[in-house]
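Researcher: Next sequence.
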Amino acid sequence: MKVVLLFTVMAGILTAALQHPVGLAPILAALLCAACFLRKRDIVIVGLGAMLIHEAMVGFSLFTIVRLVAILGVIGVIWAIRVRPVWPSLLLGLFLAAPVYHLALATGDWATQFCTKAPHTAAGFAATLMGSLPYIQRSVVNEAFFTAAFLGLYALSGSAIRLWWPSAFSGRLGTQNNF
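Model: Next structure:
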């Protein structure tokens, strides 16, 4: 449970600290990494918990509901394709989950007129989608970077634990999936 809490808090704080216009949102990367090593229930805790921490830091609004729905969509995609800790699976997860997330955010933005003030027409929806494309492009690249960074950090921490605390992987602890 400590890993789940740490992952949740880290993703929430990083997402709130990195500004929205830059296109840095490590929550998708955290969810992809969580899918590799944690139970389904824990993936939901990481996703929703990180988003709630983010919202608490930047301020709750009507768009909070949109973000939570978008995260639930990502979780559904990750569960459906069963992301595993291999690059093809992670890349597939990223390139399927990112459009779901960003399409949900763009649709929610159009519906709530939170960022863009496009009219509630088909042309307004198309304008909102087209306006979000540069952000989506930057975001997907950054999400791939964060996924690699999180997995690298996970691997390094596992190696450090094996080196400095080898008993953690033997005996009773070694028979359980603690990570």
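Model: The domain at 2-168 is CATH 1.10.1760 (Arp2/3 complex 21 kDa subunit ARPC3). Residues 18 and 24 are 6 Å apart (CA to CA).
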